[in-house]
Amino acid sequence: MKGRYGIHGGQYVPETLMNEIHKIEEAYEFYKNDQAFNDELNTLLKEYAGRPSLLYYAKKMSEDLGGAKIYLKREDLNHTGSHKINNVLGQVLMAKKMGKTRVIAETGAGQHGVATATAAALLSMECEIFMGKEDTDRQALNVYRMELLGAKVHPVTTGTMTLKDAVNEAMREWTKRVDDTMYVLGSVMGPHPFPMMVRDFQSVISKEAREQILEYEGKLPTAVMACVGGGSNAMGMFYHFINDKDVKLIGCEAAGKGVDTALTAATIATGSLGVFHGMKSYFCQDEYGQIAPVYSISAGLDYPGIGPEHAYLHDIGRAQYVPVSDDEAVSAFEYIAKTEGIICAIESAHAVAHAIKLAPTMAKDDILIICLSGRGDKDVAAIARYRGRDIHE
Amino acid sequence: MWQQLPDIGGEIFMNRIQQAFDHQKAFIGFLTAGDPYLDKTVDYILDLEEAGASLIEIGIPFSDPIAEGPTIQEANVRALKNKVTTDDVFEMVKKVRLKSQIPLCFMTYLNVVFHYGYERFFQKCQEIGIDGIILPDLPYEESHEVKDVCKQYGVTLISMIAPTSKDRVAMIAKEAEGFIYLVSSMGVTGTRDNESFASNLDEIIQYIKSVTDTPVAIGFGIKDAQQVKTFQQYADGVIVGSAIVNIIKEYGDQGDEALKQYVSSLTKV
User: Quick check: is A173 catalytic?
Assistant: First the structure.
């Protein structure tokens, strides 16, 4: 069925948006096969975003952990510092071709907001970003970055004032003004065609990684892993490996203070089936279907749902989802900095943390690829505070 | 003590929404259940009826009401702060039904219903005398998973049409039952000035009328008698929500007179 992943997905949005969503579906079906569009996008990805991103053999880390060979897919080295640019260049370019003059987006950590503001500046589009008030405080530098890039940032003061509320507000804004505006969704979530479209734009990660690892090692990896909030870098990292049945796919969810506490954002571990933000999927919610006020140290993973394709991969057992706590993520953040000289995003550190546990249990000829979805400059002050050093940006 | 719930026959049940539109322009009032608290919601529903409302839309609070503007969002927050649950709202409706046979529709978001379980939810609606339901995040394409269960329990799923619906109008209108909720303008709920309303509402209604006999009520943004009067020229009814919720916010549980006065000023135009 169209836009469905097993029982998940769908288009659960107000009638006001339905024609617009169908327009985006049609446009995407056209442009994804349009040579001129793909040439233009690929040129931007190569010459502007800096693709292909490196697949780096983390030798010190591999030796230190004493198990599998660990490779890092360096999405942190992309322009704007995360994988978000892959999707944003695709969507904003398409919006422009559709005749839109304005883009809006939600952002959690600010990475998607910065990427959207960047693409909007490059492609001369008006840009407005919705960001939870709590996140504008946690990620004040990214707010200023977006403003530097010419975007208007709206702090969202409703609900939990985090990513889910930013999505709510961006959707509300979109229903007010659809004619000239594209909602550039940042993750593999929302109504169809967003989960599919964002996945396709992000699948460049696994397309490259698969070629690179075959070139370097002459074989496929034992496992690939990535952090999961909505799940865009994970879906990008998984996609071209889904049909390689022997490659394990591992998503690392933000457990916050632990999956047995209320302060968690681990959707697969603690959520249940629901319908929210345009899609049927798993959500953290109470017994009456009220969406839970989730928590994670990572603003980018602080989301009560997960993309519908992940929900499906979980249902059929193709991918495994594991919770990683704040403590584990912060330790991994520090570990990879000291071991490999890489300051990665606290989001990505969730995947690193699980690799630290998993790699020693694996054989020397096993290969593990971690998607390093973003760089960690934005997180340095917050991590310092977590460790009791009162540093502010 | 509470009396036995009056026996509500299937026939009457199916037709209660229709009564709101019989020989009159319907005035549909909205409020959020549990704002300021549930027993007061019972009073306010009866106040609205006394002031001339012909159908009441009862909002079951949801944590993330994406189709609502600030006014109704805040009412949801107030109700949820009071720990109002779906079961509590059902109990509240039972109390209303002891005193009134006014047509009642729920307005909530799909997850509230989905999570409760479609069967269980609509069976409960039938038991307590709910006539219809409005789910703004359930468009036509996804509606069939709900519609069949609704039908089974005699609850009407209300269809929404928006100024952007265009080529979708006929498809939606042909299947619409109870009444059609025509969204007056772009955006979310909340009172508006006249220039914000879509300019082609009369044309949309004319077109709807060419494919169905189901009555059409206009909602989103309506706040004053002049607007009611204008819309009643071509619609079968009007829906007023945020303006009512604003009064409840201002007066808390002391709003009976203010509500009656306000709604009377709109129903007697």
Answer: no
Query: How far off is chain A from B261, nearest CA to CA, in Å?
Result: 31
Phi-psi map region of A225: left, alpha, beta (phi>0 left; psi -120 to 50 alpha): beta
Q: Do A276 and B111 touch (CB under 8 A)?
A: yes
Query: pLDDT tens, A128-152?
Result: 999 999 889 878 889 999 999 999 9
DSSP assignment, residue A240? G
- Who contacts A123 (Cβ-Cβ below 8 Å, separation ≥6)? A92, A93, A96
**Among A106, A128, A208, A253, the one annotated catalytic:** A106
Q: Would the ipTM clear 0.85, i.e. be above it? A: yes
Q: Report how far apart, in Å, the C-alpha atoms of A6 and of each of A273, A281, A368, B111 are.
A: 13, 10, 28, 18
pLDDT digits (tens, 9 = 90+) for B148-172: 999 999 999 999 999 999 999 999 9
In which band, very low, low, confident or very high, does the pLDDT at A393 lie, cut at 50, 70 and 90?
low
Binary contact (B139, A285; C-beta < 8 A): no
Q: What domains lie within chain B, and their CATH numbers?
A: 11-158+238-267 (3.20.20.70)
Q: Which H or E element spans position A279?
A: strand A278-283
Quote the CA–CA distance of A274 and A70 in Å, as a whole number: 36
Q: Return the SS3 of A321.
A: strand
CB atoms within 10 A of CB A356: 21
Whether the pLDDT of residue A389 is over 60: the answer is yes
Q: Cβ–Cβ of B63/A278 closer than 8 Å?
A: no
Catalytic residue among A73, A84, A164, A378: A84
Cβ-based contacts of A273 with chain B (< 8 Å) = 114
